[in-house]
Structure formats: structure tokens, C-alpha cells
Design brief:
The protein is mainly α. Helix content is 48%, strand content 0%. It has five helices and no strands.
């Protein structure tokens, strides 16, 4: 999972790309899929000193499965249980 398990590899890869290509990038798009939590991934751009001076987070895009969204947001079995609603959490980042 890029948001947690290989986050350090992402930093190393981005640093390598910047050293090799310099300022030739207009944008770098990092796509996560499934239930990836964008928070830890976004934090890479705030916490890594070497990247911070060369890259910045321009935005987070969330794609929503509208056909199934209501079912995920209003699951009555999970209300008032302390459950963290991943669908709601991901939409809130965008």
C-alpha cells in the first residue's frame, strides 16, 4: 500500500526523479486505488525536508462510486459504534 507500507520508497523515488530530471516536471500524479487513505501520502509532501522545497501538494482528487455511496455512508449497523467511515473520510480529504 503506497499510503503506508511503501511511503518511504515513494519519497526516495521522487527525490531520484527530481535529481535526474530537475525542473522538467509540470505535475506528478500519484494514483491510489481502493480504500487508500490519502492522509499519510499527503503528509509526505509536508514532512520530507528535501521534497518540501521542490514539490508541493496541489490537490487531492477523490473518485466516488455514486451507485454505492449512500449504502456506505448510511450503514445502520455501524452508526454509534466508533467505526471510522472510510468513504466519508476519503471524500473529506478532497
Amino acid at each position: 500500500c503506497i499510503c503506508c507500507a511503501v511511503k518511504d520508497n515513494l519519497v526516495t523515488t521522487l527525490e531520484g526523479l527530481l535529481k535526474r530530471a530537475g525542473d522538467k516536471f509540470d505535475h506528478i500524479i500519484i494514483e491510489t486505488s481502493g480504500l487508500a487513505d490519502p492522509g499519510p501520502l499527503a503528509a509526505v509532501f509536508w514532512l520530507d525536508e528535501e521534497l518540501e522545497s521542490q514539490l508541493f501538494l496541489n490537490g487531492i482528487v477523490t473518485v466516488v462510486d455514486l451507485k454505492n455511496l449512500e449504502r456506505h455512508l448510511d450503514d445502520p449497523h455501524k452508526l454509534n459504534t466508533g467505526y471510522v467511515n472510510e468513504a466519508l473520510k476519503q471524500i473529506s480529504y478532497a
